[in-house]
Amino acid sequence: MVFSSHLFIFYFLPLVLLIYYALPRRGKHLALTLLSYLFYGWANPLFVVLMLASTLIDYLCGLAMSGQFRRGARARPVPVLSSRPPGSVGQRKGRWYNWLLVPRVWSWIRERDPDRTAGQKVALVISILSNLSLLGFFKYFNLGAESYQSLVNALGLPGLSLDLAFKVTLPLGISFYTFQSMSYSIDVYRGEARAIRHFTDFACYVSMFPQLVAGPIIRFQEVADQLRERTYTAEKFARGVGFFCVGLAKKILIANVCGKIADMVFDAGSAGCVDAWFGVAAYAFQIYYDFSGYSDMAIGLGLMLGFVFPKNFDSPYRSKSITEFWRRWHISLSTWLRLYLYFPLGGNRLGRVRTYVNLALVMLLGGLWHGASWNFVIWGGIHGAMLAVERARGKQSFYHRLPGAAKVLITFAVVCFAWVFFRAPDLPSALHYCGSLLGVNGAVCGAGLIAGLIYQPYYLLMFGVAALVTWACPQTWDWTRRITLPKAAAIVGLLWLSLTVLTTQSFNPFIYFIF
Predict the structure, then answer these.
(1) Positions marked catalytic
(2) Tens digits of per-residue pLDDT, 100-123?
């Protein structure tokens, strides 16, 4: 089930709001959890079982860790789960969990947090390993099997090949809810958040349908207080409706049209230099308005339910460097990677070289998080290299002396070049498309036919609208702060136009559903 469908807008959403507001607080969380499971399991009910298992594991691990904390953050642990003194469990050689959890990793965790008991550390490791194991198997098994098969064939060892008669299906949203669930365990372990005592509240946090499938990634401490108490006002609800309608318009009116342009150019097999840049720019607009449109709708739905989710996009294509781009693009992911990966790796505290290595490593892993393909690793590597170079120059781009508009244009061009690896189906296709961008592929057969398809008046008009909204219009977060009568009329108009166009479009899910 997707937000941009008649089923969701005319049936599921009204049902959710009717049931939600008719129940008391405890009933609200239970109803929202069950309805979110219905939303998530609409395509495949088995996905619900997987998410429920992950939720139960992290809930129990959170209880195990919180049972040894006194009130207040970073307090010395109280040995509730074990009568041994802190740090005594697991220090002897030969213990079974030393072998299970890899001795080096276990020793590093034990030495890094001497004020945590062994029971708390075991609970944290179980939570992290279970989430990463689920994510790794369902997301990267096929890539690993294909890479192994290619390696065996290249070495001429057919006897070692794997004869697999099945493919692992990627559950929707697993990349998002595993990261959310891990943030809960880590925050509780660090003493930055209190564990949830009621399973229903935690299940509601993990499964909440507005941000379940494609984000934003809501860290637990961002909504912990709201899970206990939140306000419901007409102003908040009206702003939520505004967010949802603007997001729907972004998806239906802009992203889908730009996606058609990008599909025609990328699927053509070859394109001239100008056509290739037009196609990748259209894809840049498509992925931005597709994903920011989903985030707007998720934030709007959260407001309708009384929750305030954090901003996920801050006009990223107005950035003047790649460093600034990653402060504006997919803010929830970049924040998660910074807090739970970059800082634990040492951040910028271990010297310049280690800082550059950490930046590159985080972006490589961030690229791999997006999908099980070497194209995503290259995409992350490009951004990681740019971040490292800018860090070496004091967070300035190598074109920082140019005028502001030129810096924005060059940054957008670099981002577009990297998007090729994000969009292309495989590495050879991506490299060939990059050759078209650089004008080194020579004469293109059928270039006139491609131009006749992509430079139609309607496509050019919507491409221009996308550019205008990107660089000249206020962002949804600011525009919806106060809903005036003219804005209300504009919101109704956008909703009517989006629903009208929606009836003419075929099924077109959000891009980030596949991640």
Answers:
(1) 370
(2) 434 545 555 555 666 677 788 888
